[in-house]
Design brief:
This is Methylmalonyl-CoA epimerase, mitochondrial. With 165 residues, the protein is an alpha+beta fold. It has four helices and nine strands, in the order H-E-H-E-E-E-E-H-E-H-E-E-E. A hairpin with a 5-residue loop joins strand 7 and strand 8.
Length: 165
């Protein structure tokens, strides 16, 4: 009755995921599905310095700067093998990125964007589940597709953007 046998018999039971049952069986069926991570958005106080870091220092493929007046931002996309980074900089004084940068002077992660196969069905179901959506209707996002944002307080502190795939 050494230490090893005491460790084997006392202590918490660890349950493992069985490979014979698909993990998704516990997820209720839905009229819409989450897709892949489209991008992670980073608010930056100096867009050209950030653009240069990813392009010149790290060697990434980086887009030109694009103004999105409807969203109050300038965007630059950094292409990665499996997703993108979106660099965000304020466009105008009412930009949500300007207020973010007032609180986070050096910038930081702003939101994540996940693709969905049916944004309207997602909106309907999320509203029923008491998830607040920050606009009544989808807006056209940086990729020319409809997007909505979910309230960060309903998503464990993360601002989540859903984009029509």
């Amino acid at each position: 009755s050494g230490l090893l046998s005491r460790l084997q018999t006392s202590g918490p039971t660890i349950q493992t995921l069985s490979s014979s049952k698909p993990f998704s069986q516990n997820i209720p069926s839905s009229l819409w599905k989450l897709g892949r991570l489209n991008h992670v958005a980073i608010a930056v106080p100096d867009l050209e310095k950030a653009r240069s870091l990813y392009k010149d220092v790290l060697g990434a493929q980086v887009s030109e700067t694009v103004a999105l007046p409807e969203h109050g931002v300038y965007t630059v996309f950094v292409e990665l093998g499996n997703t993108k980074l979106e660099l965000l900089h304020p466009l105008g004084e009412k930009s949500p990125i300007a207020s973010f940068l007032q609180k986070n002077k050096t910038g930081g992660m702003h939101h994540i964007c996940i693709e969905v196969d049916d944004i309207k069905a997602a909106m309907t179901e999320l509203k029923k589940k008491k998830i607040r959506i920050l606009s009544e209707e989808p807006k056209i996002g940086a990729h020319g597709k409809p997007v909505i944002f979910l309230h960060p307080k309903d998503c464990h502190g993360v601002l989540v953007e859903l984009e029509q795939a």
